[in-house]
Amino acid sequence: GPRGLKRIGLSLAWLLCLGCEGGDRSAELERAAQSLGLGFSRSLPPDVETALREVPSIKLRARNYLANAVIVEDAIFFDWTWRKAWVKDRTVVKQTVVAIRLRERALPAFAWAERGQLSRPDLRELGGALDFGDVPEFSDQYEVAGQDRAGIRMLFSTPQREQLKLPAGMRVDGSGEWLIGYRPGELVSPAEIERSISEVHRLADSL
Question: What is the pLDDT of residue 2?
Fold first, then answer.
Protein backbone atom coordinates (compact mmCIF):
# COMPACT_ATOMS: atom_id res chain seq x y z
CA GLY A 1 0.00 0.00 0.00
CA PRO A 2 0.97 3.70 0.12
CA ARG A 3 2.73 3.31 3.49
CA GLY A 4 4.84 0.45 2.18
CA LEU A 5 5.77 2.42 -0.92
CA LYS A 6 6.67 5.39 1.26
CA ARG A 7 8.97 3.21 3.40
CA ILE A 8 10.65 1.80 0.30
CA GLY A 9 11.08 5.31 -1.08
CA LEU A 10 12.65 6.53 2.17
CA SER A 11 15.00 3.52 2.27
CA LEU A 12 16.11 4.13 -1.32
CA ALA A 13 16.62 7.82 -0.63
CA TRP A 14 18.69 7.00 2.45
CA LEU A 15 20.82 4.50 0.52
CA LEU A 16 21.46 7.04 -2.21
CA CYS A 17 22.39 9.61 0.42
CA LEU A 18 24.72 7.08 2.04
CA GLY A 19 26.61 6.94 -1.22
CA CYS A 20 27.18 10.69 -1.23
CA GLU A 21 30.67 10.54 0.22
CA GLY A 22 31.27 14.12 -0.82
CA GLY A 23 32.61 15.28 -4.15
CA ASP A 24 35.49 17.07 -2.43
CA ARG A 25 36.89 13.87 -0.91
CA SER A 26 36.48 11.94 -4.16
CA ALA A 27 38.29 14.68 -6.05
CA GLU A 28 41.07 14.89 -3.46
CA LEU A 29 41.61 11.13 -3.50
CA GLU A 30 41.63 11.10 -7.31
CA ARG A 31 44.25 13.86 -7.43
CA ALA A 32 46.38 12.08 -4.81
CA ALA A 33 46.13 8.78 -6.71
CA GLN A 34 47.13 10.44 -9.98
CA SER A 35 50.12 12.12 -8.32
CA LEU A 36 51.27 8.67 -7.16
CA GLY A 37 50.67 7.08 -10.55
CA LEU A 38 47.82 4.95 -9.16
CA GLY A 39 44.39 4.20 -10.56
CA PHE A 40 41.21 5.69 -9.12
CA SER A 41 37.55 4.81 -9.46
CA ARG A 42 34.50 6.10 -7.59
CA SER A 43 33.29 2.49 -7.38
CA LEU A 44 35.06 -0.82 -6.83
CA PRO A 45 35.39 -3.40 -9.62
CA PRO A 46 32.23 -5.55 -9.33
CA ASP A 47 34.09 -8.85 -8.81
CA VAL A 48 36.24 -7.29 -6.09
CA GLU A 49 33.26 -5.73 -4.32
CA THR A 50 31.42 -9.07 -4.38
CA ALA A 51 34.41 -10.80 -2.76
CA LEU A 52 34.93 -8.07 -0.16
CA ARG A 53 31.30 -8.27 0.90
CA GLU A 54 32.11 -11.75 2.23
CA VAL A 55 34.70 -10.38 4.67
CA PRO A 56 33.11 -10.47 8.17
CA SER A 57 33.25 -6.74 8.95
CA ILE A 58 31.34 -5.84 5.81
CA LYS A 59 29.16 -8.95 5.62
CA LEU A 60 27.82 -8.36 9.14
CA ARG A 61 26.77 -4.77 8.45
CA ALA A 62 23.50 -3.67 6.91
CA ARG A 63 23.31 -1.00 4.20
CA ASN A 64 26.93 -0.83 3.14
CA TYR A 65 28.38 1.53 0.57
CA LEU A 66 31.90 1.03 -0.83
CA ALA A 67 33.40 3.89 -2.84
CA ASN A 68 36.46 5.95 -3.79
CA ALA A 69 38.81 3.15 -4.75
CA VAL A 70 42.53 3.82 -5.16
CA ILE A 71 43.87 0.79 -6.97
CA VAL A 72 47.37 -0.66 -6.66
CA GLU A 73 48.58 -3.98 -8.11
CA ASP A 74 47.43 -6.24 -5.28
CA ALA A 75 45.78 -3.71 -2.98
CA ILE A 76 42.73 -1.46 -2.93
CA PHE A 77 42.30 1.58 -0.68
CA PHE A 78 38.62 2.57 -0.39
CA ASP A 79 36.02 4.27 1.78
CA TRP A 80 33.37 2.13 3.45
CA THR A 81 30.17 3.62 4.88
CA TRP A 82 27.47 1.81 6.81
CA ARG A 83 24.65 2.71 9.15
CA LYS A 84 24.00 1.26 12.59
CA ALA A 85 20.65 -0.51 12.58
CA TRP A 86 19.84 -0.30 16.28
CA VAL A 87 16.52 1.29 17.22
CA LYS A 88 18.12 4.03 19.32
CA ASP A 89 21.24 4.45 17.21
CA ARG A 90 21.13 5.13 13.46
CA THR A 91 24.62 6.62 13.30
CA VAL A 92 26.37 6.56 9.93
CA VAL A 93 29.90 5.18 10.31
CA LYS A 94 32.63 5.99 7.77
CA GLN A 95 36.10 4.56 7.55
CA THR A 96 38.86 3.87 5.06
CA VAL A 97 39.77 0.26 4.37
CA VAL A 98 42.89 -1.22 2.80
CA ALA A 99 42.27 -4.59 1.16
CA ILE A 100 45.21 -6.81 0.19
CA ARG A 101 44.74 -9.63 -2.30
CA LEU A 102 46.66 -12.73 -1.25
CA ARG A 103 46.67 -14.66 -4.50
CA GLU A 104 46.81 -18.43 -4.35
CA ARG A 105 45.75 -18.38 -0.69
CA ALA A 106 42.40 -19.09 0.91
CA LEU A 107 41.95 -17.45 4.29
CA PRO A 108 39.27 -18.63 6.70
CA ALA A 109 36.69 -15.95 7.48
CA PHE A 110 37.97 -14.26 10.63
CA ALA A 111 38.06 -10.99 12.56
CA TRP A 112 41.02 -9.87 14.69
CA ALA A 113 41.10 -6.82 16.94
CA GLU A 114 42.34 -5.54 20.27
CA ARG A 115 40.53 -7.14 23.19
CA GLY A 116 37.13 -5.54 23.78
CA GLN A 117 36.92 -4.01 20.29
CA LEU A 118 34.90 -6.78 18.60
CA SER A 119 31.23 -6.06 19.24
CA ARG A 120 29.00 -8.58 20.97
CA PRO A 121 26.86 -9.08 17.83
CA ASP A 122 30.01 -9.73 15.77
CA LEU A 123 31.35 -12.21 18.31
CA ARG A 124 28.00 -13.97 18.44
CA GLU A 125 27.76 -14.27 14.63
CA LEU A 126 31.37 -15.45 14.39
CA GLY A 127 31.00 -18.12 17.06
CA GLY A 128 32.84 -16.28 19.83
CA ALA A 129 36.52 -15.55 20.36
CA LEU A 130 39.01 -18.41 20.20
CA ASP A 131 40.99 -19.33 23.29
CA PHE A 132 44.74 -19.20 22.72
CA GLY A 133 45.91 -20.23 26.16
CA ASP A 134 49.38 -21.31 25.03
CA VAL A 135 50.38 -17.67 24.35
CA PRO A 136 48.60 -15.76 27.15
CA GLU A 137 50.17 -12.44 26.14
CA PHE A 138 48.39 -12.67 22.78
CA SER A 139 45.05 -13.65 24.35
CA ASP A 140 45.33 -10.86 26.92
CA GLN A 141 45.81 -8.27 24.19
CA TYR A 142 43.72 -9.53 21.25
CA GLU A 143 40.55 -11.34 20.22
CA VAL A 144 40.26 -13.51 17.11
CA ALA A 145 36.86 -14.86 16.05
CA GLY A 146 35.45 -16.96 13.22
CA GLN A 147 33.50 -20.13 12.53
CA ASP A 148 36.38 -22.11 10.96
CA ARG A 149 38.19 -22.69 14.24
CA ALA A 150 40.69 -25.20 12.84
CA GLY A 151 41.56 -22.97 9.88
CA ILE A 152 42.03 -19.94 12.13
CA ARG A 153 44.27 -21.87 14.51
CA MET A 154 46.45 -22.90 11.57
CA LEU A 155 46.65 -19.27 10.42
CA PHE A 156 47.34 -17.95 13.93
CA SER A 157 49.81 -20.69 14.86
CA THR A 158 51.76 -20.54 18.11
CA PRO A 159 54.94 -19.19 16.46
CA GLN A 160 52.84 -16.59 14.63
CA ARG A 161 51.09 -15.44 17.77
CA GLU A 162 54.40 -14.99 19.56
CA GLN A 163 55.38 -12.42 16.92
CA LEU A 164 52.17 -10.82 15.65
CA LYS A 165 51.48 -7.22 16.61
CA LEU A 166 48.36 -5.38 15.52
CA PRO A 167 48.84 -1.66 14.78
CA ALA A 168 47.08 0.40 17.45
CA GLY A 169 43.34 0.78 16.88
CA MET A 170 43.26 -1.42 13.80
CA ARG A 171 40.84 -4.24 13.04
CA VAL A 172 41.85 -6.93 10.55
CA ASP A 173 39.49 -9.33 8.78
CA GLY A 174 40.08 -12.02 6.21
CA SER A 175 38.07 -14.18 3.83
CA GLY A 176 39.21 -16.15 0.81
CA GLU A 177 42.08 -14.36 -0.91
CA TRP A 178 41.36 -10.99 0.72
CA LEU A 179 42.65 -9.47 3.94
CA ILE A 180 41.46 -6.05 5.07
CA GLY A 181 42.68 -3.60 7.69
CA TYR A 182 40.98 -0.44 8.97
CA ARG A 183 40.39 1.69 12.04
CA PRO A 184 36.66 1.88 12.77
CA GLY A 185 35.25 5.34 12.22
CA GLU A 186 38.47 6.77 10.76
CA LEU A 187 38.82 8.16 7.24
CA VAL A 188 42.41 8.22 6.04
CA SER A 189 43.75 11.44 4.57
CA PRO A 190 44.65 11.39 0.85
CA ALA A 191 48.19 12.29 1.93
CA GLU A 192 48.37 9.00 3.85
CA ILE A 193 47.45 6.61 1.01
CA GLU A 194 50.91 5.05 0.62
CA ARG A 195 51.55 4.82 4.38
CA SER A 196 48.16 3.21 4.98
CA ILE A 197 48.61 0.62 2.24
CA SER A 198 52.15 -0.21 3.43
CA GLU A 199 50.93 -0.66 7.01
CA VAL A 200 48.36 -3.31 6.05
CA HIS A 201 50.72 -4.88 3.51
CA ARG A 202 53.32 -5.52 6.22
CA LEU A 203 50.67 -7.16 8.37
CA ALA A 204 49.46 -9.34 5.48
CA ASP A 205 53.04 -10.45 4.81
CA SER A 206 53.41 -11.55 8.43
CA LEU A 207 50.44 -13.94 8.31
Answer: 53
Mean pLDDT computed over every residue of the chain: 87
Point out which residues pair with 96 in neighbouring strands: 79
DSSP 65-81: EEEEEEE-SSEEEEEEE
Q: How far is CA 141 from CA 104, 116, 174, in A?
A: 30, 9, 19
User: Residue 159: helix, strand or coil by DSSP?
Assistant: helix
Per-residue CA distances from 126 to 43, 56, 86, 141 (Å): 28, 8, 19, 19
Q: Coil, strand, or helix at residue 98?
A: strand
Gap between the Cα atoms of 9 and 118, Å rounded = 33
Confidence tier at 149 by pLDDT (50, 70, 90): very high
pLDDT at 151 over 80: yes
Model-level pTM?
0.86
List strand residue ranges (DSSP E) for 104-184, in order.
107-114, 142-145, 171-176, 178-182
If one counts every other C-beta atom within 10 angstroms of the C-beta of residue 138, the result is: 22
Tell me the C-alpha distance between 59 and 69, whole Å.
Answer: 19
Closest C-alpha among 48, 153, 135 to residue 144:
153
pLDDT at 134: 83
Going by pLDDT thresholds of 50, 70 and 90, the confidence category of residue 195 is very high
